[in-house]
């Protein structure tokens, strides 16, 4: 018996149509849900890749030129002999060793162009009266070098010729003309950089302390999502300009840091663990990650992660010996 006109639908036909529509609607919702999940996953993996590549590029380009000091590259800096310092550094960042501040001192130990430690495990860097606020279990690296092309910079400056070096800040009462500082000299910008990881608003960030014209008072937040950093130091023990082995910071000796004899650090391997900024509730991370010699995880949270790595050859230690 028809419930509506002879040209309408029966109750059974209407119910069948509603069931079919319901299944079609559920299918559409499932498709949209899968599409949204894929978009989230793809977007987060792209974010991991781009943040990791950017962080590695920033660190690598800086580290590969560490130890460059113009015409006196490879020379020991001896105060009142071949080295003159005009002005002091405020809030200086000082690492381990007898001669490991921004500027050389009168200690007989070699001036350290590179040094590192693992936060919360070994060593520390103190800036002013405060220890560097690095995430425990992550590596910190400190490097010093001149930057070119030659010419007076807005920051801290250094004048060099083939036998002498003169450190002076832009605020020091010293002529900026290199010829008035030293005979046949060139003026360069001077960099003292410290790369480390810190947590800001619950997000891990690759940060950098840097030297200005007056002191170590610049702090740059460079890339978000860098959760762990591991650095292995490649040292050349037989003078063939190649790294025989790569060591964690705990195994690098004072002789290696000071580049004494043939014990030169000629390369570094950098491992970064990159984490997404946002969590994905549909994803659980139970993966174990390998950062060189160190294993981290599983984290059992909802952040995606990725390991990126690179090896940086250090040109100046090799050129110095040769």
UniProtKB/TrEMBL annotation:
<keyword id="KW-0472">Membrane</keyword>
<dbReference type="Pfam" id="PF07963">
    <property type="entry name" value="N_methyl"/>
</dbReference>
<feature type="transmembrane region" description="Helical">
    <location>
        <begin position="12"/>
        <end position="32"/>
    </location>
</feature>
<protein>
    <submittedName>
        <fullName>PilW family protein</fullName>
    </submittedName>
</protein>
<dbReference type="InterPro" id="IPR032092">
    <property type="entry name" value="PilW"/>
</dbReference>
<keyword id="KW-0812">Transmembrane</keyword>
<dbReference type="InterPro" id="IPR012902">
    <property type="entry name" value="N_methyl_site"/>
</dbReference>
<keyword id="KW-1133">Transmembrane helix</keyword>
<dbReference type="Pfam" id="PF16074">
    <property type="entry name" value="PilW"/>
</dbReference>
């Amino acid at each position: 018996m028809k419930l509506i006109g002879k040209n309408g639908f029966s109750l059974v036909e209407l119910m069948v149509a509603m069931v079919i529509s319901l299944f079609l609607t559920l299918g559409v919702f499932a498709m949209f849900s899968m599409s949204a999940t894929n978009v989230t996953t793809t977007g987060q993996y792209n974010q991991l890749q781009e943040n990791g590549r950017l962080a590695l590029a920033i660190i690598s380009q800086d580290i590969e030129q560490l130890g460059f000091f113009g015409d006196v590259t490879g020379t020991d800096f001896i105060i009142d002999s071949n080295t003159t310092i005009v002005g002091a550094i405020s809030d200086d960042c000082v690492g381990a060793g007898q001669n490991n501040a921004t500027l050389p001192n009168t200690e007989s130990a070699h001036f350290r162009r590179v040094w590192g430690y693992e936060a919360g495990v070994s060593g520390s860097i103190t800036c002013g009266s405060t220890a560097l606020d690095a995430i425990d279990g992550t590596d910190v690296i400190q490097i010093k070098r001149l930057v070119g092309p030659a010419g007076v910079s807005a920051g801290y400056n250094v004048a060099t010729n083939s036998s002498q070096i003169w450190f002076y800040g832009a605020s020091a009462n010293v002529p900026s003309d290199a010829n008035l500082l030293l005979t046949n000299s060139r003026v360069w910008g001077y960099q003292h950089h410290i790369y480390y990881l810190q947590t800001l608003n619950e997000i891990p960030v690759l940060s950098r302390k840097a030297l200005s014209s007056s002191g170590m008072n610049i702090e740059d937040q460079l890339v978000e999502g860098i959760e762990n950093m591991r650095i292995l130091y490649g040292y050349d023990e037989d003078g063939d300009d190649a790294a025989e082995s790569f060591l964690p910071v705990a195994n690098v000796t004072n002789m290696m840091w000071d580049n004494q004899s043939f014990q030169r650090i000629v390369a570094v391997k950098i491992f970064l663990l990159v984490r997404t900024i946002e969590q994905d509730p549909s994803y659980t991370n139970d993966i174990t990650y390998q950062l060189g010699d160190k294993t981290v995880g599983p984290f059992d949270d909802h952040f995606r992660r990725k390991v990126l790595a690179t090896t940086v050859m250090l040109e100046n230690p090799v050129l110095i010996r040769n």
